[in-house]
UniProtKB/TrEMBL annotation:
<comment type="function">
    <text>Plays a role in repairing double-strand DNA breaks, probably involving stabilizing or processing branched DNA or blocked replication forks.</text>
</comment>
<dbReference type="InterPro" id="IPR004504">
    <property type="entry name" value="DNA_repair_RadA"/>
</dbReference>
<protein>
    <recommendedName>
        <fullName>DNA repair protein RadA</fullName>
    </recommendedName>
</protein>
<dbReference type="InterPro" id="IPR020568">
    <property type="entry name" value="Ribosomal_Su5_D2-typ_SF"/>
</dbReference>
<dbReference type="InterPro" id="IPR014721">
    <property type="entry name" value="Ribsml_uS5_D2-typ_fold_subgr"/>
</dbReference>
<keyword id="KW-0067">ATP-binding</keyword>
<feature type="binding site">
    <location>
        <begin position="93"/>
        <end position="100"/>
    </location>
    <ligand>
        <name>ATP</name>
    </ligand>
</feature>
<keyword id="KW-0547">Nucleotide-binding</keyword>
<keyword id="KW-0346">Stress response</keyword>
<dbReference type="GO" id="GO:0008270">
    <property type="term" value="F:zinc ion binding"/>
</dbReference>
<dbReference type="InterPro" id="IPR020588">
    <property type="entry name" value="RecA_ATP-bd"/>
</dbReference>
<keyword id="KW-0227">DNA damage</keyword>
<keyword id="KW-0479">Metal-binding</keyword>
<dbReference type="GO" id="GO:0140664">
    <property type="term" value="F:ATP-dependent DNA damage sensor activity"/>
</dbReference>
<comment type="similarity">
    <text>Belongs to the RecA family. RadA subfamily.</text>
</comment>
<dbReference type="InterPro" id="IPR003593">
    <property type="entry name" value="AAA+_ATPase"/>
</dbReference>
<dbReference type="InterPro" id="IPR027417">
    <property type="entry name" value="P-loop_NTPase"/>
</dbReference>
Length: 478
C-alpha cells in the first residue's frame, strides 16, 4: 500500500516549505505567512509521445531566433542586439520609475515595423493607457490593447491577435481561475508565468513581463520566476531625477554587464546615448572641493563629479554626511588621508556628494574622493581639467582599476587635460611620476595617495615640508 502524502507547511509570500509549522518564514522573514499545505503525491510518470524527434544540433535552424530591433537603441544594447522571437523577458522596477512608459514605447516602435503587438494591462484601464499613448505618440494600427486580469482571457486574446510581441503589465495582477491563492501570490504567479512562457515558446512570441519589487529592491514573488524567464532586467532611477537606467541581471542571449540610459520626460522616454554630461557640473570659476572620477557602468565609461565640503564643527561629534557615495568608503578615505597625508578632519564636519543624482560605489572613485576632500580642507581648487581614478588601500597605496584604456579614452574625448592613475604593476618606478599622453591628454601615474595629493599641490604646508625633508635625505618610500 502506498503511503499517504505527508502534509507540509508553505509560506504564502515566497513559497518556502518546511516539515513543521513555524511562526516566521525562514526565507523572507515574514511573520504569520506559513500555513499547512498538502504535499503532492509522488507517482510514476509514464512515457508519452514527443512533440518533435531529436535531431543533431548542427541541423537545428537558427533563423527563427535572430535578433529583431525593438526600436529603442539603448534597450537593444542591453539585450545584446534586440528582441529574440520566443524569448521571455522580465522587467522589474520600483513603482513610478517608468516601466509602463518604456514598454509602451517598445510596443509602439515594434508596431511601426508592421509587426503586430498586444499590450495587456492589468493595472490600468484601456483608456488610461490610450491617454499615455497619445502623449508619447504611441498610437498605431498594429498595436492592440487589452485590459484583462484573468489568465484565460489573456490566452484567448493571444490566440485571436496572434502577435509577434506580447507585453503583460504586470504578471502580479493576472490571476488563474481554479488555482488557490490571490493574484500576486506564489502559486498564482507560478501558474501565470508558466502558462505565458509555454505560449511564448510554442507560438514563437516575444513576451515581456512586468514584475513588481519588494521594499528592499528584489523582485516580488517566487525566486523560480527568475529561473524560468530568459532575460531579467532591472529598471532603476531616482525619483528626483529624469535619468533612468536599465541593467541586465540575467541574459541568455547576450552580456549581463551592459546598461541602457534613458531620459524620462513629459513627452515619454528617450534614449540617452551619451549620458556623461549629466553628472559633471560646468563651473565658470574654479571652486575648492571638486574632482571628476571615471566610473564603469557595465561596459560604458561614465564621468561623475565628486564634491566635498569641510567646515568647522560646532558639536563634539562632527557630522559625516554622504549622498551618492558609499559612506563606509568615504570614512576609510578620510582615515587614510589622516594617517598618510596629514590631513586632519577629526574635528571637522564633512559633507560629500555626487552631481546629478549619480550613484558612485565603485572603488575606482576613491582617489577622486580623496582629492575632493583634500581640496576642500585646504580651500584650494583642484587644477582645471583633471580626472582621478584609483582604489586606495589602507596602507595608502593606489591599486589598479579595470578597463583603464576605456576610461582614459572617454576622459580625453570630453576634453580633460590631465589624468591621475595608479602605477601599473611591473618593474620599480623612478621616484618622479611617469607620464604619457592619450589622445592629447597627459596621464600621470603615482604609487600612493600622498604622491597624488602632493602632485596636485593639495598637501598641508607642514606635511609638504616633511616630505621635502625626506626627499632630501634620500630615504626609500617617496
Amino acid at each position: 500500500m502506498p503511503k499517504p502524502p505527508r502534509s507540509a507547511y508553505r509560506c504564502s509570500e515566497c513559497g518556502w516549505e518546511t516539515a513543521k509549522w513555524v511562526g516566521r518564514c525562514g526565507e523572507c522573514q515574514a511573520w504569520g505567512s506559513v500555513a499547512e499545505a498538502a504535499a503532492a503525491p509522488v507517482g510514476r510518470t509514464a512515457a508519452s509521445p514527443v512533440t518533435a524527434p531529436a535531431v543533431p544540433i548542427g541541423q537545428v535552424s537558427v533563423e527563427e531566433s535572430q535578433f529583431r530591433s525593438s526600436g529603442v537603441p539603448e534597450l537593444d544594447r542591453v539585450l545584446g542586439g534586440g528582441l529574440v522571437p520566443g524569448a521571455v523577458i522580465l522587467l522589474a522596477g520600483e513603482p513610478g520609475v517608468g516601466k509602463s512608459t518604456l514598454l509602451l514605447e517598445v510596443a509602439a516602435q515594434t508596431a511601426r515595423y508592421q509587426r503586430r503587438t498586444l499590450y495587456v494591462t492589468g493595472e490600468e484601464s484601456a483608456a488610461q493607457v490610450r491617454l499615455r499613448a497619445d502623449r508619447t505618440g504611441g498610437v498605431h494600427d498594429e498595436l492592440y490593447l487589452a485590459a484583462e486580469t484573468d489568465l484565460g482571457a489573456v490566452l484567448t486574446h493571444i490566440e485571436q491577435a496572434r502577435p509577434t510581441l506580447l507585453v503583460v503589465d504586470s504578471v502580479q495582477t493576472i490571476g488563474a481561475s481554479g488555482v488557490e491563492g490571490v493574484p500576486g501570490g506564489v502559486t498564482q504567479v507560478k501558474e501565470v508565468a508558466a502558462a505565458l512562457i509555454r505560449m511564448a515558446k510554442t507560438r514563437n512570441i516575444t513576451t515581456v513581463l512586468v514584475g513588481h519589487v519588494t521594499k528592499d529592491g528584489s523582485i516580488a514573488g517566487p525566486r523560480v520566476l527568475e529561473h524560468l524567464v530568459d532575460v531579467v532586467l532591472h529598471f532603476e532611477g531616482d525619483r528626483n531625477s529624469r535619468f533612468r537606467m536599465v541593467r541586465a541581471m540575467k541574459n541568455r542571449f547576450g552580456p549581463v554587464d551592459e546598461v541602457g540610459c534613458f531620459d524620462l520626460g513629459p513627452d515619454g522616454i528617450t534614449a540617452v546615448t551619451d549620458p556623461t554630461g549629466l553628472f559633471v557640473e560646468s563651473h565658470h570659476n574654479q571652486v575648492p572641493g571638486t574632482c571628476v572620477a571615471v566610473t564603469m557602468e557595465g561596459r560604458r565609461p561614465m564621468l561623475a563629479e565628486v564634491q566635498a565640503l569641510v567646515t568647522h564643527s560646532a558639536s563634539e561629534r562632527p557630522r559625516r554626511t554622504t549622498s551618492g557615495l558609499d559612506s563606509s568608503r568615504v570614512a576609510m578615505v578620510m582615515a587614510v588621508l589622516h594617517q598618510h597625508c596629514g590631513i586632519r578632519l577629526q574635528t571637522m564636519d564633512v559633507f560629500a556628494s555626487t552631481v546629478g543624482g549619480a550613484r558612485v560605489v565603485e572603488p575606482a572613485s576613491d582617489l577622486a574622493v580623496a582629492v575632493a576632500l583634500a581640496s576642500a580642507s585646504r580651500g584650494l581648487p583642484t587644477p582645471r581639467g583633471v580626472v582621478a581614478m584609483g582604489e586606495i588601500g589602507l596602507a595608502g597605496e593606489l591599486r589598479r582599476v579595470r578597463d583603464l584604456p576605456q576610461r582614459l579614452a572617454e576622459a580625453a574625448r570630453l576634453g580633460f587635460q590631465l589624468a591621475v592613475v595608479p602605477t601599473e604593476a611591473g618593474p620599480k618606478r623612478p621616484r618622479s611620476p611617469e607620464s604619457w599622453t592619450v589622445e592629447g591628454m597627459r596621464v600621470v601615474d603615482v604609487a600612493d595617495v600622498s604622491g597624488a595629493i602632493r602632485m596636485l599641490d593639495l598637501l598641508p604646508d607642514r606635511r609638504r615640508q616633511d616630505l621635502r625633508a625626506v626627499d632630501d635625505n634620500d630615504l626609500p618610500g617617496f
